[in-house]
Structures are given as structure tokens and as C-alpha cells.
Design brief:
This protein is of the alpha/beta class and 837 residues long. The two termini are 45 Å apart.
Length: 837
């Protein structure tokens, strides 16, 4: 076999995927692996069974891969923190050793950051966060110290006083280095799984790290951190972390304060100070890979080392050794980032081929890199950066030349006929632009479905943006490498490179900001299904290698139509559903209820949360995309409190929102005027609702507004003016109560004949309300749902609902709640129940 690493890597990937999708016991896969190993031996020894040797070997590799993935992920000791902690926070004293330290700033930089913190009047708590990772060793209990194991991520939140008076805490922070033994006192807990469909799975993200992070700990004071004598240091890691710290300090010392975060991110992968706006801008222009340390950085580092050494005429063997040492060192310096690791392994294989005098094979290099990365950490297969890095590389390697042959056939033919004297002055510029265009287009096409799947973004001009941005990025990286070298060896000489890198960075950020503001520069999309992604890449392979496979264009078109029919058919079935579905998302203390009607239209009732200012971006939008929703027909805001409206701007940016309705007092208030101005700026139609209004266009369902009265007093509490609506369908009804309290309930009780419903949203997040029992007694619901968080739902409320035999669902306990009404009646389900079923 010419390239054995290719099928071996593909079988490893297949086994990891099967292991992640199934819950096969490890002992079963190990036993199965042993059986297949015996079968392989039999087929190799017995000649009459030799034809079965390859299938047996393939099955053995897959089973071994499954066992390897499961053992790395699920085999935990008895004293592991997974068996000790719960998702509820517990105050514990835990001792351990720091295995991934925070960035420890120089005193000068700390003082500058403290001054900046003082100037920021509305500084967020997250801006004062310092994170590091420890390997837990013991926990203090009532019985004394108990040995534990596992890895915990620690978040230290400095108080405002500590952030401002940093000199008092600098001695503690400087001790948080690699290998330092510490005793920590704070709230320890297991990370929670996602509570809503489509929500980012932070739990799995942590578990897929290397090493796997299983617990979290929050500390609110530096006094709760005590250091212990002695250390457990691996001196290689100690040196790498110390140097990385020194280099970060060098960047922040010499460059402009507003340029340092981005330069540090590009060179060392440190995103600690990058603003969300900067990250979003790079994402919207499709060049997020420029601020994530990747294989391109490795290429520039190699180039920066090779150029001066070649000028000095260093021996080729010595040059190769220096390059290999540099690549390995840079890989460790960037934290063994999977994209960097892939490029480094490829570079290592390439330069090692010089020593063994073997021809370099790029396909073997790519698959060897993937194989070694997955052996090191099988969970890296699901890392977004790793996937994009490998796909972009394969797109460039296998697609750019074919794209160039297809699009620039005539130009290439003329170039072959020309001699050097016939080529004009702009020949090399044209060639550079053509090559850059084809490489960018190949990388974009190779990563397009995966980018749309994860980020829900489509960036049509990314090829042009890449060509515009690349020279600036190249200047920053080269100047940054010079800065890091001179900043340590001879700081005064680093000023020029720091100045050039800083100004280039400012130009880059300004350019990106302007590109984002251009119309149609990016679009938000639902993203393809996993099956759609597989079909996309299958067609890409068939198109690139159609000549070898004897496939013509009509056959490709026919296959495309057949695949599209198979992929789209389930959506047609979903669209033809005759049920009314209500989904109450878990947003903490707030509200976000999505109602899907049988005629295909929808309503979003409230969109906000106290716990999450970005609830529209991180919870509601991912849920809607997971349901393949592209537009919102109507948003109804019950009232203007932030826990019901602060997610609206993010939704309007990401979806086509036709209309936003609320009661008249909402739009008349100061906060409501801001909302109204924002809606008009985005050309969203608005209207005021009050008792008696009926909303048309959602038939056969009927929607009626029951609160507030048309002439309710302005002095009434904001909560009591909440929009209350009733939806009727197939003889069943649902009552949405918003945040009404005693006065609002009294108004509803005066219309007792109209409020009888089968499902009720418990008013004001389930808090204690004096006349709630009268409301429940009048409505007589079979189901009640509460959108709230721990500590808000009153015991009295739950007792009243239990007394009236109401089936109660709570988002903070059950996750997202789904209620469906069809001809069979009402059915309910919760996200947690389905996720762990």
C-alpha cells in the first residue's frame, strides 16, 4: 500500500465518531477488540482465510479506536471530582497544583490596567477575571482532608477595590505560576450541560480539552488563595510558560495599549483582552483564522528563521535542525494548539524527509499530522479550529490548482508560451493576485459548510478580504517576531518594530470595521445539517476527480437533485405539521417563548434575561437556527423591563423580524422610546396592544389580548401593564401572563369567563403573589410552566399549583420546555429529559 497512513487515520476517525455517538461499555469494546485481533492473526496465518485479513484488520482498528476514545473520556477513578461535585455550587477548600497558569503581568502593566479600570465607569465583572487550571489533590471535609483527582478550571474575580489597588495583590498573583501548589477556598461545581436546543455545550467543550477539565471553581477574593511550599514542576513546561509570560509582557510593554491584545492573539494565541466587538468583526468578514494561531503562523515563523540563516549561508543540515527546534518550541509556546500542532507535524515530517532522503508526500504529511493529534487527544476531532484548519489545508492543497486551471486556463497557457523577456513589469503582481485568489477561494469553499454550521455566517466577499488583509497580517507577524526577539535581547531596538506593528494593527482593525459596515458583507444563515455537509464534500470530491471517476456534468446534476430531494423532504414534512408548539427557553430570570403555528407562522413572546445580556445571541438565536427558522413574523414584548427585551437587538441583527408589538405604556416609557427608535432605524413595524385586540394571520389559531385595558393608568406598575394574551387552537387554550402581579390579576379576574385555559404561564416568574390562587382556581389549567431561576420561585406558588393538581414544568429544573397541541391533545416534554433519556 502506497500511503498506509491514510486508511489508518480514516479508520481512527471513524472509530472516534462511533464512540462519541454511542454508549458502548468499554469492557465490551476491549473484548471485541481482542476477538478481532485473534481473527486478524488467524487470517494472517491461515492462507485460505487471507482474503478476510483486510476487513478484519479494518474492524480491529475501528473497535480499538472506539475503546481508546471511551477509555480516555469515561474511565474515571472513584475519587474523581465528577463523583464528588454537583452542578450546585458548594463552598469547599481544595488543594492542588497549577498546571496552566494565568498570564502574570509586570507591575508596570498591572498599574496601567488598574488606571484603565478606574476610567471605565461601567466595568464588567468579567473584565476583572483571572483564570487558571489546577490538578486537584485534596478536598477538606468534615472528616478531614480526602484525596481527590481531576482537573478544575479556577476563575478568580477581583473586586473593584482589588482591581484598582493592584499593588496589594501583585505578590499573590505573581505566585500563580506553573507547578505552584495552592489551597483555594471558593464555590466548586460541575459545569452544567446546555439547557436549550442549539445552545453551546460548554460542558463538552471543557471535557474535550487537554487535559480534560471536569470541574469549575469561583473565587471572589485573593485572600482565599494560599500558596504551599514545594512544587511539582515539569521543567520544560515551566520554561515554556515563563517564556510565554515574558513575551506577552514584552508585547504589552512596547506596543500601543489598544493594539497589544490583537498582536498578542496573532503571535501567541492570547485572547484574554480581545473585545467581543473585535472578534465579531473578524468573524463577520470570514477571517477569524487570522486572530487564531494556526498553520499560517508556523509558516511565517519558519520563513522568518530561514531567511536570515540562508543569508548567513548556514549548512543545510544545521539549518534543518534549527528549523525543527524552532517549530517544536513555537508549538509548545502556543499551548499545543491543534491547528499549530497539525502544521508543526507537517513541517517536521517535511524537514525530516531531508535526513532520510525520502521524497516529501503532502497527503501522507496531512494524514500523519491528523493521526498524531488524535492519538494525543481523540476529542480534538470535534475541535472547531482543528476541523477548519485541516479542511482549509486540504482545500488549498487539492483544490487551488484545479480552480486555477478552470478559471485561468487561457492565462496559464499564454504564460507557458512566454519567455521571461516577454513578461511585463506587472507579471509577478498579476501572478500573486491570481494565486492568492485561487488559494483563498479553495480554502473558503473547503470550510464553507462547517463555518455556516458552527457560526451561522455566510461571507460572500471573504476571498477579496483575504487578499486585502494578508499583507497587513504578514507585516504584523514579521514585526511581532522581531519585536519579541529584540524586546528580550535589546529592548531599545524593539521600538521601531513595535511602532510599525501597532500602526499596521490600527489600519487592519479600521479596515475590518469598515468592511463589516458595508451592505451585504455578511449574512446570518441557519446552517446545513450534518447530512448536508457530508453531501457537500462528497460532491466536491466527485467534481475535483470527475475525470478519474468518468463522471460527466449531467450525472453530477442528477445526483445533486436526488440528494437535495432527500435532504429537503424532512423539512417539508415538518412544515406540513398540524400542531401548535410552544417552547419556553431556559434563560434564567427572564422570558423567551417561541410559538410555532400550524400555518407556518410564528410569534416570539418576550426576549430577555437578567443573567445574560447576550441572551438573543447565545440562547434564542441558536435555538431558532436549530429549528431552521429564518424569520420571526411577530415579536410581542410583554413590558419594557430588561429581562424581557434585552435580547431583541441581537435577534433583529440575525433574523428578518417583521413586526414588534407591545402595550402602549412600553413604547411611551424612557426605555421603550429607545426600543422604538431602534426598531424604526431597522425598519421594523410596530403597534400597541390592549384588551380586545385580536391578532390576525395565525389562523386556524385564534389570538386575543386580555391586558392591559385600553385606558390603563400610567401610574400602574410596569409589571401590571404586561401584555397578557390567550391563544386558542382545536378547543384548547394557552394563557401567557407576563409579569402581572396583584393588580393585573384583579383585572383578569374581572373577565373570568375569558381566561379559562388549559395551559398557563405562571405570572412574574413564579414569585409569591397574594391572589395567585384565585387566578389558578379561575383558569383551571392542566399544565403550568414557570420561566425563572433558583431562589425566585416561591414555595407558596408551588403549593398552590400542587393543590389544584396542575402539572408544573420549570425551566431552571427541566431546561427548555416544549408544549404541543394537536388532535390528540396536549403533550409536554423538557430538554433535560430528552437529552439524558
Amino acid at each position: 500500500m502506497r500511503r498506509p497512513i491514510v486508511p489508518i487515520t480514516l479508520l481512527l476517525i471513524c472509530g472516534i465518531c462511533i464512540g462519541s455517538c454511542t454508549k458502548i461499555p468499554v469492557y465490551f469494546t476491549v473484548g471485541m477488540g481482542f476477538v478481532m485481533w485473534v481473527c486478524c492473526l488467524v487470517t494472517f496465518v491461515a492462507h485460505k482465510f487471507s482474503k478476510f485479513s483486510l476487513p478484519c484488520l479494518a474492524i480491529f482498528f475501528i473497535v480499538a479506536s472506539i475503546a481508546y476514545y471511551d477509555s480516555r473520556k469515561n474511565l474515571l477513578p472513584v475519587n474523581h471530582i465528577d463523583h464528588i461535585l454537583t452542578t450546585n455550587k458548594s463552598l469547599l477548600r481544595i488543594s492542588g497544583t497549577i498546571i496552566k497558569p494565568p498570564i502574570i503581568w509586570d507591575e508596570k502593566i498591572l498599574n496601567a490596567r488598574a488606571l484603565h479600570a478606574k476610567s471605565e465607569q461601567s466595568q464588567k465583572r468579567s473584565d476583572r477575571k483571572i483564570s487558571f487550571i489546577i490538578r486537584a489533590e485534596a478536598v477538606e471535609t468534615s472528616l478531614g482532608l480526602e484525596d481527590i483527582s481531576g482537573v478544575i478550571k479556577v476563575n478568580l474575580y477581583l473586586s473593584k477595590e482589588e482591581a484598582f489597588e493592584i499593588n496589594k495583590n501583585v505578590s499573590v498573583l505573581k505566585k500563580l505560576g506553573y507547578g505552584q501548589r495552592v489551597v483555594l477556598f471558593g464555590s466548586a461545581f460541575l459545569p452544567k450541560p446546555p439547557a436549550n436546543p442549539g445552545e453551546f455545550d460548554y460542558l463538552r467543550y471543557l471535557q474535550r480539552q487537554m487535559p480534560s477539565i471536569r470541574g469549575l471553581m469561583t473565587i471572589v477574593n485573593t485572600k482565599n488563595i494560599k500558596t504551599k511550599p514545594g512544587d511539582c514542576r515539569n521543567w520544560i513546561y515551566y520554561f515554556v510558560y515563563a517564556l510565554s509570560n515574558k513575551l506577552n509582557n514584552t508585547i504589552y510593554t512596547h506596543t500601543f495599549s489598544n493594539s497589544a491584545p490583537l498582536i498578542s492573539s496573532m503571535l501567541l494565541g492570547n485572547r484574554i483582552d480581545l473585545s467581543n466587538e473585535t472578534i465579531d468583526n473578524f468573524m463577520k468578514t470570514g477571517i477569524i483564522h487570522f486572530i487564531a494561531v494556526s498553520g499560517f503562523n508556523v509558516g511565517i515563523v519558519v520563513f522568518a528563521v530561514v531567511t536570515p540563516l540562508r543569508f548567513l549561508r548556514i549548512n543545510q543540515t544545521l539549518l534543518t535542525i534549527i528549523i525543527l527546534i524552532t517549530v517544536i518550541f513555537y508549538t509548545f509556546l502556543t499551548g499545543l494548539n491543534p491547528p499549530v500542532l497539525r502544521a508543526s507535524i507537517m513541517a517536521f515530517v517535511f524537514f525530516c524527509s531531508f535526513f532520510v532522503r525520502r521524497q516529501w508526500d503532502i497527503t501522507s504529511g496531512i494524514f500523519a499530522a491528523v493521526f498524531f493529534i488524535l492519538i494525543r487527544n481523540p476529542s480534538d476531532l470535534f475541535d472547531i479550529g482543528f476541523q477548519l484548519s485541516v479542511l482549509a489545508t486540504m482545500g488549498i492543497v487539492y483544490g487551488s490548482a484545479k480552480i486555477e486551471e478552470t478559471l485561468f486556463k487561457t492565462a496559464l497557457f499564454i504564460e507557458k508560451l512566454q519567455v521571461k523577456a516577454e513578461r511585463g513589469r506587472l507579471f509577478f503582481l498579476k501572478k500573486y493576485l491570481r494565486k492568492s485568489f485561487c488559494i483563498s477561494l479553495a480554502a473558503w469553499l473547503a470550510t464553507l459548510p462547517v463555518t455556516a454550521y458552527y457560526f451561522h455566517l455566510f461571507t460572500p466577499f471573504v476571498v477579496i478580504v483575504n487578499i486585502l488583509v494578508f499583507p497587513l497580517f504578514w507585516i504584523i507577524i514579521v514585526c511581532g517576531i522581531i519585536l519579541l526577539t529584540l524586546g528580550i535581547a535589546c529592548p531599545p531596538l524593539a521600538i521601531v518594530s513595535a511602532w510599525l506593528a501597532s500602526y499596521t494593527n490600527l489600519i487592519l482593525e479600521s479596515l475590518i470595521s469598515n468592511l463589516v459596515s458595508l451592505p451585504y458583507s455578511y449574512f446570518y444563515v441557519c446552517g446545513p445539517s450534518p447530512a448536508g455537509i457530508v453531501v457537500y464534500y462528497l460532491f466536491g470530491i466527485l467534481f475535483l476527480y470527475r475525470h478519474y471517476l468518468s463522471i460527466n456534468y449531467p450525472q453530477l446534476v442528477l445526483l445533486g437533485l436526488l440528494s437535495a430531494h432527500i435532504l429537503i423532504f424532512p423539512d417539508f414534512r415538518k412544515f406540513s405539521s398540524r400542531s401548535l408548539t410552544i417552547t419556553c427557553l431556559d434563560v434564567g430570570h427572564g422570558g423567551a417563548l417561541f410559538i410555532q403555528f400550524p400555518n407556518g407562522k410564528n410569534i416570539l413572546y418576550d426576549a430577555g434575561s437578567w443573567q445574560n445580556n447576550n441572551v438573543g445571541k447565545y440562547i434564542i438565536a441558536p435555538f431558532l437556527w436549530s429549528q431552521h427558522v429564518k424569520k420571526i413574523d411577530l415579536v410581542i414584548l410583554s413590558h419594557e423591563h430588561k429581562d424581557h427585551v434585552n435580547g431583541l437587538p441581537a435577534l433583529i441583527e440575525r433574523f428578518q423580524v417583521k413586526s414588534v408589538y407591545s402595550q402602549r405604556h412600553s413604547f411611551a416609557s424612557q426605555e421603550g422610546q429607545k426600543i422604538l427608535s431602534f426598531l424604526r432605524k431597522n425598519h421594523v413595524s410596530t403597534a400597541s396592544l390592549s384588551y380586545g385586540n385580536e391578532l390576525k394571520g395565525f389562523e386556524p389559531a385564534g389570538i386575543k389580548i386580555l391586558n392591559p385595558p385600553p385606558f390603563a393608568s400610567d401610574t400602574a406598575a410596569i409589571n401590571n401593564n404586561s401584555c397578557v394574551l390567550k391563544i386558542e387552537y382545536l378547543g384548547y387554550s394557552v394563557l401567557f401572563c407576563g409579569d402581572i402581579k396583584e393588580q393585573g390579576i384583579e383585572l383578569l379576574l374581572s373577565k373570568a369567563s375569558e381566561i379559562r385555559s388549559d395551559i398557563i404561564q405562571v405570572p412574574h416568574h413564579g414569585s409569591s403573589i397574594r391572589n395567585l390562587e384565585m387566578l389558578i382556581n379561575t383558569v383551571q389549567p392542566a399544565y403550568a410552566f414557570i420561566n425563572s431561576n433558583d431562589g425566585v420561585v416561591a414555595t407558596d406558588t408551588l403549593n398552590i399549583l400542587k393543590k389544584h393538581c396542575v402539572n408544573v414544568l420549570q425551566t431552571h429544573l427541566d431546561g427548555a420546555i416544549k408544549l404541543s397541541i394537536d388532535k390528540q391533545g396536549i403533550t409536554s416534554s423538557s430538554f433535560f429529559h430528552k437529552a439524558f433519556k
